[in-house]
Amino acid sequence: MGEPELPAYLLDSSVAGCILRRDNKRVLRRLAELAPGEVGISAITRGELEFAARISAWADRDAAAVKLLMEHVVVLEYPGEAAEHYGEIREAMHWKEVGMSVADAQAAAHARCLGLTLVTERPKEFREAPRLRVECWSAFG
Questions:
Q1: Tell me: the pLDDT tens digits for 4-62?
Q2: What is the Cα–Cα distance from 88 to 62, expressed in whole angstroms?
Q3: CA–CA dist 118, 113 (Å, integer)
């Protein structure tokens, strides 16, 4: 029995938030077009969503929404090999003077390390990361 297949896409926290809020029809339409298993989320991003739900004014509702989303995406553990990618991405962002949070850089490193496409609502920020494939599903018709 071989390794499980990886998803093609890794969601960052901005696009996961759109899905949880159900406030972007283009993102929801694109998500509906994909087969189960094609979309993943980093354990790091899951942690960001869990934190946001816990401090929300609607903590119970938001925690339930996060739990439901996790049932429909592949949650990927953060691999040790992503550390080198993280360092390179953060360095590139530093020299290009692009502000990027630690969690965003970790999501980018995770996607690049595994050869996945990072899906974000902030494509301009991530396009400065070297050798990272980025999509913005809001751009889809």
A1: 689 999 999 999 999 999 999 999 999 999 998 999 999 999 999 999 999 999 999 99
A2: 34
A3: 11
Q: Does residue 68 lie within any of the structural domains?
A: yes
CATH number for 62? 3.40.50.1010
Judge whether 31 lies within some domain: yes
Q: Specify the number of domains making up the chain.
A: 1
DSSP-derived secondary structure for 101-141 = -HHHHHHHHHHHHHTPEEE-S-HHHHTTSTT-EEE-GGG--
Instruction: Print the domain residue range for 78.
Output: 9-139
User: With contact defined as beta carbons under 8 Å apart, do 22 and 131 qualify?
Assistant: no
CA–CA separation, 105 and 109 (whole Å): 6
- Give domain status of residue 3, yes or no: no
Rg (CA), the chain: 15
In a domain, 74, yes or no: yes
CB-CB contact of 118 with 108 (8 Å): yes
What predicted TM-score, i.e. pTM, was given to this entire model? 0.93
